[in-house]
Amino acid sequence: MAKRGQGTRGWFYSFKLHLISNDQDDIILVMVTTTNIGDGKLMLDMTNNLLESLY
Question: Cβ of 53: how many Cβ atoms within 10 Å?
Fold first, then answer.
């Protein structure tokens, strides 16, 4: 799933881990994406179906 990219230290494979938890440290939702996915639209999609308040 990770995409190959090049940085200042050479070639690498990377991904982003998005995690939503509640105040009791229970994991509500986990999503893994490649680094070229924008966080703004993804966060709206992830929180669209949550019934609790978000802070």
Answer: 5
Q: Which residues contact 14 (CB under 8 A, 6 or more apart)?
A: 2, 3, 5, 34, 35
Q: Which amino acid is at 2?
A: A
Max Cα-Cα span within the chain? 43
Which residues are within 8 A (CB) of 41 and not within 5 positions of it... i.e. 6 or more apart?
Answer: none
Under the banding of pLDDT at 50, 70 and 90, the label for residue 52 is low
Q: Which helix (H) or strand (E) holds 37?
A: none
Q: What is the pTM of this model?
A: 0.60
